[in-house]
Amino acid sequence: MDFADVIRKRYSVRKYKDTPLTPSQIDSILMAGNIAPTAKDIQPQRIYVIESKGAMEKLAEAIGRMAYDAPNAFIICADESEAFVSPFDGRNFAETDATIVADHMMLAAQDIGVGTCWIGYFDPDKVREAFDIPNNERIFHILIAGIPADDAVPGPMHPKRKQLTATVRIL
């Protein structure tokens, strides 16, 4: 798929077929996250792949309706103690790095026909406990994933975009 098509057609999928992703699909998505740029290329990300039905049920218990009956998910974390810290303002880049990784994964999924929904509404303590994620790894994002259901459609806000003049300043 042409990159412009990937970014235009991608939307938050909230209805999935019951078919789990194949190992090849999971590998393609993980490879995109692996090659994502991170600050100073430190790569502090940690990705937990949820691929079994039992693990998805456990995730659904932790995040509730936000699981949208997806067959798979990726929990994207980062070790803040490994991440680059700006010498200018002390900003830790762990969240930025995890976000870039998640975005690469999301767009790679779209490119191979896999739908995703970026879940930010979850209690990280419940997710950490459910999957025994170490305390040094901060949970930043969850991408649920699967093949979109035949009747899956973008949410009503998806096509509504501000004009560039509202968000861009040319200097």
Tell me the fraction of residues in β-strands, as a range. Answer: 15-25%
Average pLDDT level = 97
Tell me about the biggest sheet? 4 strands, antiparallel
Count the strands?
A: 4
One letter per element, helices H and strands E, the order comes to: HHEHEHEHEH
> Which consecutive residue ranges, at least 5 long each, have pLDDT under 50?
none
Number of DSSP helices? 6
Globular, elongated, flat, extended or rod-shaped: what is the shape?
globular
Helix coverage percent: 25-40%
Which structural class should the secondary elements be placed in? alpha+beta
Radius of gyration from the alpha-carbon trace, in angstroms: 17 Å
**Widest beta sheet: strand line-up:** 1-2-4-3
Helices, strands, pairings?
Blueprint: H1 3-9, H2 23-34, E1 45-50, H3 53-63, E2 72-79, H4 94-111, E3 115-119, H5 124-131, E4 137-146, H6 164-167
Helix pairs in contact: 1-4, 2-4, 3-5
Highlighted features:
globular; 6 helices; 171 residues; alpha+beta
